[in-house]
Structure formats: C-alpha cells, structure tokens
Amino acid sequence: MPIYAYQCGSCGHAKDVLQKISDAPLTTCPSCGAEAFTKQVTAAGFQLKGTGWYATDFSGRKSPAAAPEAGAATASSPAAAAGGADA
C-alpha cells in the first residue's frame, strides 16, 4: 500500500497516511477538523535491490567510449599545434 502525504490548507497540519489506491482521499483535517485536508504531490521513494541493479543507474566502471575520447584529444593536439604554427 502506498503512503500519501496530506496537508491542511487551514492550519498547516501535515501527515503521512498509509492507504489503498482504491480508498477515497481524506478531506477532514484530524487536527482542526476543517475540510481543507489535501493530498500533496511528492516524489516516489523506492530503491531497486538485487543483482544487476545499481542505486544510481551507473555501475561506476569506465565505459569503453571514454578511452577513444582520450585518444582523440591527443590526436587533435598535434594537429592544433601544426595549425597554430602555420597561422
């Protein structure tokens, strides 16, 4: 069951509520009793666990594309130096 964040527009009371998706949204504030208790939009908080999943979607290993970039930079440096000597 998901946890929904609610906040009262009248008194500012905030509360996290564990509800079924099919449950009707709460409208009455438990603190002041006003009909201004609304759901807040919040970021989903979950983490994938197990083999093959990374917490940040990156393994931390160097990608094969990183090696050619270093080689391309050294290859362009002599050409840039030669172009600079002509100018």
UniProtKB/TrEMBL annotation:
By its UniProt entry, which SMART domains does this protein fall under? CxxC_CXXC_SSSS
Q: Where is the Putative regulatory protein FmdB zinc ribbon domain?
A: 1-42
Low complexity bias (residue ranges):
63-87
Q: Which domain of life is it from?
A: Bacteria
- The residues that cross the membrane are none
What ranges does the record give for the region Disordered, renumbered to this chain? 61-87
> How is this protein named in the record?
Putative FmdB family regulatory protein
